[in-house]
Design brief:
The complex is a heterodimer of chains A (167) and B (204). With 167 residues, chain A is of the alpha+beta class. Chain A is 16% helix and 25% strand. Chain A has two domains: 35 residues; 97 residues, Protocatechuate 3,4-Dioxygenase, subunit A (Sandwich). Chain A has three helices and seven strands; from the N terminus they run αααβββββββ. In chain A, the strands form two sheets. Chain A has a four-stranded antiparallel beta sheet, with no helix packed on it. The N and C termini of chain A lie far apart (37 Å). Chain B has eight helices and no strands. In chain B, helix 1 packs antiparallel against helix 2, helix 3 packs across helix 5 and helix 6 packs antiparallel against helix 7. Chain B is globular. Chains A and B meet through loops of A and helix 4 of B.
């Protein structure tokens, strides 16, 4: 039974539903992790994901004074292989600055398992939702902008997952 | 008579006061703060509108209540303009997304739709004489738009995670809905008849 459910979900994702991809990739990454025969569908950019983007944020050990963790994974579409050394740019409205301000932006690289993790200041609600922004915009793969929303403004971490396709 | 005024002052004043104590304000610029409060005030004005036109606010006469309804309508337009302009200055791409119905936030389309309904009502109200709209025609136009304004504003407000304290926000929203429902029932706005309250005196 479980297999059937998984198949349907993956088919939905492969079918190109942006919403499903976003929800599954954000909240249930485990469902997408096994590289199945149908292939891992690429992540689509979320609406509003690119808002207040500043191209070329520097790779940093930490954004500002930290206290909040943004993490996630980067994998290749199709076979789902983790991608190492990929630059992920992160920005948000935090206790140390507004979304568009330079000090609110930073970047990090994925490790050999395709995972990334960057400490940043606490994200707070802006425009009615506590949310962060992430971008893959390095050229090798197609650019993707994500805009994950926190379940509560009190949370101190947020995840976002990328499945990239060749540019 | 004084009770209703006290109740209105509390219904609008308490949410504004509690929002003024929100810790969110510490992380916001003055323009963003102004925009937020303009939104709360706008919702407060949406509460006052049905009460004025329903004649529930003594000692205002039906005539004076109606005049006040027009002026508050103008103030509502102003509050919405400040709300939208302030948010635009704070984050232009987010505001453009909202206005073009492309926003990821579920509350945005409700607010934008209510905004257009407010603008349409205000525009038609200012042209009502020139267009020679009969009371019945006017009601036929205004009532559906009033419902769009009220429902749109309430849903918009409830879905937002911002400076407003939850309980006072819900209370204000419930009162807005209740006041609107009461005036629509009392004035029997859906009944097909030629006269209504103020006009009936002139025709008898």
């Amino acid at each position: 039974m479980t297999m059937v459910v998984l198949n349907r979900r993956n088919l939905l994702v492969a079918g190109g539903s942006v919403l499903t991809t976003g929800v599954l990739a954000t909240s249930m990454p485990g469902l997408l992790l096994p590289a199945r025969a149908e292939g891992v569908a690429p992540t689509e950019s979320m609406s509003g994901g690119a808002n207040n983007y500043r191209k070329g944020a520097a790779v940093v050990d930490r954004i500002g004074k930290g206290g909040f963790w943004m993490s996630g994974t980067v994998r290749r579409a199709g076979d789902g292989v983790p991608l190492a050394g990929q630059r992920i740019q992160i920005w948000a409205h935090t206790v140390e600055g507004q979304e568009h301000e330079p000090q609110s932006h930073g970047a990090t690289l994925t490790d050999k398992d395709g995972k990334f993790r960057l400490e940043m200041p606490q994200i707070i609600p802006i425009f009615g939702q506590p949310h962060g922004h992430l971008a893959y915009d390095s050229g090798e793969f197609k650019t993707v902008f994500l805009r994950p929303v926190m379940r509560s403004a009190k949370e101190t971490s947020l995840e976002a997952h990328f499945v990239l396709q060749p540019a | 008579m004084i009770l209703i005024w006290v109740a209105i002052a509390l219904a609008i004043g308490v949410p504004v006061a509690l929002a003024a104590t929100s810790e969110q304000l510490a992380w916001r610029g003055p323009v963003y703060i102004l925009a937020g409060f303009a939104g709360i005030v706008a919702l407060g004005l949406v509460l006052v509108q049905p009460l004025l036109i329903g004649g529930y606010l003594p000692p205002l006469s039906a005539y004076r209540g109606r005049r006040a309804h027009h002026w508050i309508g103008g103030a509502l337009v102003l509050a919405v303009v400040i709300h939208v302009a302030g948010l635009w200055i704070t984050s232009p791409p987010d505001m453009i997304d909202a206005l073009t119905y492309a926003s990821p936030t579920p509350f945005s389309p409700f607010g934008v739709t209510a905004m257009w309904a407010i603008f349409i009502v205000a525009l038609l109200a200012s042209l009502r004489r020139r267009l020679e709209l009969r009371p019945r025609t006017w009601r036929f136009i205004h009532m559906p738009l009033a419902i769009v304004i009220v429902v749109g504003s309430v849903v918009h407000c409830l879905l937002i995670e911002g400076t407003m304290e939850t309980m006072s926000k819900v209370a204000l929203c419930v009162l807005v809905l209740a006041a609107t429902a009461k005036v629509m029932i009392d004035l029997q706005v859906w009944r097909k008849r030629r006269t209504l309250r103020g006009e009936s005196g002139a025709r008898q």
